[in-house]
Amino acid sequence: MKYVLVTGGVVSGLGKGVTASSIGVVLKACGLRVTSIKIDPYLNTDAGTMSPFEHGEVFVLDDGGEVDLDLGNYERFLDIKLTRDNNITTGKIYQSVIDKERRGDYLGKTVQVVPHITDEIQDWIQRVAMNPVDDTEEPADVCVIELGGTIGDIESMPFIEALGQFSYRVGPGNFCLVHVSLVPVLNVVGEQKTKPTQHSVRGLRGLGLMPDILACRSTQPLEEHVKVKLAQFCHVPIPNIINLHDVTNIWHIPLLLRDQKAHEAILKVLDLQCASKVAREPQLSEWTERVSRCDRLKSPVRIAMVGKYTGLSDSYLSVIKALLHASVALDRKLVVDWVPSCDLEDSTAKETPDAYEKAWESLKGADGVLVPGGFGDRGVQGKILAAKYARENNVPYLGICLGMQIAVIEFARSVMKLHGANSTEFDPTTKTPCVVFMPEGSKTHMGATMRLGSRRTFFQATNCKSAKLYGNACYVDERHRHRYEVNPDMVPEFEKAGLSFVGRDESGERMEIIELPTHRFFVGAQFHPEFKSRPGKPSPLFLGLVAASSGQLDHLLQRGLTSSAGRDICGKGGAQKPKACQNGHVMKPLNGLVHGHYSATRCNGVIPI
């Protein structure tokens, strides 16, 4: 196993996660299997109880792990599936060591940061690095490790010490350190300054780690004399100084690494240059085409993002990426209009009328409306008003998690005239509880007590838009993160009034997908489809929203149906007899694309080309 460690210096927010992901892309394009680990030095066990304003979105994995958003970058860039153990935190490490001490594993020893905490960190990395992350079910060749925070942070010191020891444990030729640093330009002087990077590298070396490669962030490409100066004072060869300057979109970063021969530098440090399975040049033709296509987009599609965390775009990072994936696939330039849900409410009209007018102008000017997940009652009325506007004006709408529950509440109030309808999350005493607390949830503990991870959703109708978008699948596996659900006792009333529950869980009691059949595109999902969207495999529901918002939905659905004609699901001779779904249709796992999605199972007897 080979290891690439990515650290950061000078300031936070330089893009270590994107850099680590891009290194993985380039190495994977050289023919290597790649896995990733993110180290977060905070004391929290995981990211599940952290506010999006504090740390950005909480990314959810198949196994239910609530992790740092950088693991979302890893999964999207590398098209892999990680586990909760791929996110190491101080809380997890200390909890593991304390549990061992309580069991008596240390045989009466005095438990200390060195060696017990540092050994636990090293053992964790080696154990997790061996876990398969792709369909081959084989261990990776290279593990890319990102150390969160900035060199010099006091909370990361045990990890720095552990990684220094780790470089000696795995030995020369198995460990490569990439240090991401900043080369700023002072407006007054107008020249690129190397001193911040010099000090950062000096601090890193003082802690026992020597950088093999410098990844220098800057607004413009580095001047040659700047590279010479960095090489002289940081003791890094000029070919190993990589410039990551600002680009139009982050998909350019792997191409920057390739063009500057970063893969050659990394492979040389890892002693992989002569390995038979490693290509001399990364095979990035598909990635290059996608980047070029994204840069060429002209026709805009405007999506109003109605939420309560709009002040920090990282709060909805996966949603934005899923919209981008869908927009590029449909040749549309994505324009996101951020609409603070509070600003749509009547109280804002009295207190700050300018914000109120701006919010409604953005909502009414959008081609489609998206209400993402969230918690708490702040801004809920604004989200209800957004759902009502979309429903009444035939504007495409996609509600995710809370966004689906909001649509149900709005429908109950406006269409069914149940004016007191609400969620028990917002009004525990409501007499018309459309959305209720799930029986298996905990009201006393917050961390990891929700319905989390990959769960199966069965389609109840084959002619609904959602099923068609998923390639006429019998069921799909998508990731969840919620404590509340649509009240199953009220479902018959809703369906009688015209709201269709086209997706349910295996019990048939938990509502997963809603649709308004008479609407152009009005869909809500209890799960989070954004977590499994990939640049080359857009989420079907996001494809549906963008297609409906740009006048392409009918063509998309028709293309999906016609392209599948004539392909026998059972394959060629010798195939096993296929299973039948709950509707009696033949089905078979696709292990490939369903409108670019990989987690569906076909039940209509044909597979798309």
Description:
- With 609 residues, the chain is an alpha/beta fold.
- It has two domains: 290 residues, P-loop containing nucleotide triphosphate hydrolases (Rossmann fold), CATH 3.40.50.300; 266 residues, Rossmann fold (3-Layer(aba) Sandwich).
- It has 20 helices and 24 strands.
- It has a twelve-stranded mixed beta sheet with strand order 11-10-12-13-21-20-19-16-17-24-23-22, with helices on both faces. A seven-stranded parallel beta sheet has the order 5-2-6-1-7-8-9, with helices on both faces. Strands 14-15-18 form a three-stranded mixed beta sheet, covered by helices on one side.
- Strand 19 and strand 20 form a beta hairpin.
- The longest helix has 17 residues.
- The chain starts with a strand and ends in a 7-residue tail after the last strand.
- It comes from Zea mays (Maize).
- It catalyses: UTP + L-glutamine + ATP + H2O = CTP + L-glutamate + ADP + phosphate + 2 H(+).
What does the secondary structure layout of this molecule look like, with pairings?
Blueprint: E1 2-8, H1 16-29, E2 34-40, H2 52-55, E3 59-60, E4 66-67, H3 70-78, E5 87-89, H4 90-103, H5 113-129, E6 142-147, H6 157-170, E7 175-182, H7 195-206, E8 213-218, H8 224-234, E9 241-245, H9 253-259, H10 262-269, H11 285-296, E10 300-307, H12 317-329, E11 333-340, H13 346-351, H14 353-364, E12 368-371, H15 380-392, E13 397-400, H16 402-414, E14 421-423, E15 432-437, E16 451-459, H17 465-469, E17 473-482, E18 484-486, H18 491-497, E19 500-504, E20 511-515, E21 522-525, H19 540-549, H20 553-562, E22 579-580, E23 586-589, E24 600-602
Parallel strand pairs: 1-6, 1-7, 2-5, 2-6, 7-8, 8-9, 10-11, 10-12, 12-13, 13-21, 14-15
Antiparallel strand pairs: 3-4, 15-18, 16-17, 16-19, 17-24, 19-20, 20-21, 22-23, 23-24
Helix pairs in contact: 1-3, 1-9, 4-5, 5-6, 12-19, 15-16
Family: Belongs to the CTP synthase family.
Catalytic activity: UTP + L-glutamine + ATP + H2O = CTP + L-glutamate + ADP + phosphate + 2 H(+)
Enzyme class: ligase
